[in-house]
Amino acid sequence: MLNQSILDFLTELRENNNREWFHANKKKYNAAKKDFELFVELSIEQIKAFDPGISGVNAKDCLFRIFRDVRFSQDKRPYKTNFGAFLAKNGRKSRYGGYYIHIEPDNCFLGGGCYMPESNVLKAIRTEIFHHPEEFKGIIENPKFKKHFPEMYGDKLKTAPRGFPKDFEHIDLLNYKHYAVGKMISNEIVQSDQFVSEIDESFKALYPLNRFLNEIVQDL
């Protein structure tokens, strides 16, 4: 079960997003971060039961920093108001498909796949789908998958990606900019012991997509 300290800290941070408050409450932050790190470690163990590809991954490699890069942003708030972790081979900076946990009051979600893949990775994914469209459709149209992730994340290209024929029967499958998915989770579920089973069911449904993507990525 997710420790209440995590949501409590993030709620306070949202209302006091400044360096003075953060430094005055550094102990609260460290406690909440430690609790989230432990939750991620337990989630890794949970996922390893059906996806051996994340064996050897640890929580510290998966957690995103809470500090925002404000150099080129009009929003100068110094801190993110969420804790996030990407559970994948090689951790949060991995090019591999993985599993994402986002904890933020009133905006918690689970997701995964390949978000913002590098251009060579994106082209390789599209090429594989071009040659095996039915295999990919079988994954994203599977009822267990669609129950949790009814659609792929993000905008699509309006025309065929460069290098692929415009008249390809399944061109819509190649137009994604990300091969990632996500689903919102209510605060009530996140704060209950049901969250663990929600992670288990959602990520088991996501695993076939990650397996498809990672078989491509590992050959690059």
What is the secondary structure topology, with strand pairs?
Elements: H1 4-15, H2 19-24, H3 26-48, H4 59-62, E1 83-87, E2 98-103, E3 108-114, H5 119-131, H6 133-140, H7 143-148, E4 179-185, H8 187-190, H9 194-217
Antiparallel strand pairs: 1-2, 2-3, 3-4
Strand order of the largest sheet: 1-2-3-4
Radius of gyration: 19 Å
Strand content: 5-15%
> What is the average per-residue confidence, as pLDDT, rounded to a whole number?
96
Continuous helix count = 9
Share in helix: 40-55%
Number of domains in the coordinates? Answer: 1
Organism: Marinifilum caeruleilacunae
Protein name: DUF2461 domain-containing protein
Task: Provide a descriptive summary of the structure in words.
InterPro entries: CHP02453, UCP028451. It is a single chain. By secondary structure, this protein is an alpha+beta fold. The protein has one domain. Helix content is 45%, strand content 11%. The protein has helices at 4-15, 19-24, 26-48, 59-62, 119-131, 133-140, 143-148, 187-190, 194-217, and strands spanning 83-87, 98-103, 108-114, 179-185. A four-stranded antiparallel β-sheet has the order 1-2-3-4. Helix 1 crosses helix 3 (26-48) and helix 5 (119-131) crosses helix 6 (133-140). The N and C termini lie far apart (38 Å). The model has no long low-confidence stretch (mean pLDDT 96).
Sum up the structure in keywords.
220 residues, alpha+beta, 4-stranded antiparallel β-sheet, 11% strand, globular
Summarize the structure.
This protein is 45% helix and 11% strand. By secondary structure, the chain is an alpha+beta fold.
